Amino acid sequence: MTEQQNTGGDLPDVSGLSIGILGGTGDQGKGLARRFALAGHRVTLGSRKAERAQAAADDLTAGADAGLTITGADNADAAGRSDVVVVAVPWDGHRALLESLRDELTGKIVVDCVNPLGFEKGKGAFALPVEEGSAAQQAAAVLTGSRVVAAFHHVSAKLLLDPEVEGMELDVLVLGDDREATDLVQALAGRIPGMRGVYGGRLHNAHQVEALTANLISINRRYKAHAGLRVTDV
C-alpha cells in the first residue's frame, strides 16, 4: 500500500522527517517511536533525564527491532533536534513541560496526543475539564510560536509495541488550524502500515476527540479488546 493510498489524499512526502517524542519513556511514546522508526524515520525519545531516555531507546532497539534509528535525550534536546515533535506526556505534567520548552518548539509542528482523563474506582475513566477546552488547545495557548496539531489519541500502546502486530488497522483523527501542518501529520500517520490520517476539524474540536478515549477504555475493558476507530465513506 502506498502512502497516498493509505492516507486517502494528495499529501506531502514526509519520509525524511525526524521525529522527537516528549514522554518517550511511557508506553504510548515508545510505541509511536517504534512504529515511526520501522517506517524509516529517525526518532529521538525525550525524558527529563537523558539517561532514562537512552535506556528506553536501547530497550526498543534490542532483539527483533535491532537496527532501528532510535536514540534518547533530555526533553529540550529531543525537541530541538527534531523536525516534528510529539507530546505524549502525562496530563498532570503537560503545561509545565511545554512552558519549559517554548524556545525549542518555536517554529515546529507539535503533535499533541495527550488525553486529560481521570479514573474513579468502580466507574472507570472519564474526561477532565480543561480551562482552554482541550489539551491541544492548552498546548496552542502555551506554544504561540508553534504549529499545534492534535492526533494519535486513540492508538493502543500495547498494539504499537507488539512485534506480532504488523498493521494497526485504524484511522487517526487529525485536528488543527494550519492546513499544511494537518496534511503533514496525516501523511505521518499513513507511514504506519494499516493506519490512515483523517482530517477531523479545527483545533477547537479536539475536546471531544480526547474525551472519546474514555469511551474506548470502557469498550476495551468490557470486551477485552484494543479498540480503535474507522471512518467510513472517506
TrEMBL record:
<dbReference type="InterPro" id="IPR028939">
    <property type="entry name" value="P5C_Rdtase_cat_N"/>
</dbReference>
<dbReference type="InterPro" id="IPR010185">
    <property type="entry name" value="NpdG"/>
</dbReference>
<keyword id="KW-0560">Oxidoreductase</keyword>
<feature type="domain" description="Pyrroline-5-carboxylate reductase catalytic N-terminal">
    <location>
        <begin position="19"/>
        <end position="116"/>
    </location>
</feature>
<protein>
    <submittedName>
        <fullName>NADPH-dependent F420 reductase</fullName>
    </submittedName>
</protein>
<dbReference type="Pfam" id="PF03807">
    <property type="entry name" value="F420_oxidored"/>
</dbReference>
<dbReference type="InterPro" id="IPR036291">
    <property type="entry name" value="NAD(P)-bd_dom_sf"/>
</dbReference>
<dbReference type="InterPro" id="IPR051267">
    <property type="entry name" value="STEAP_metalloreductase"/>
</dbReference>
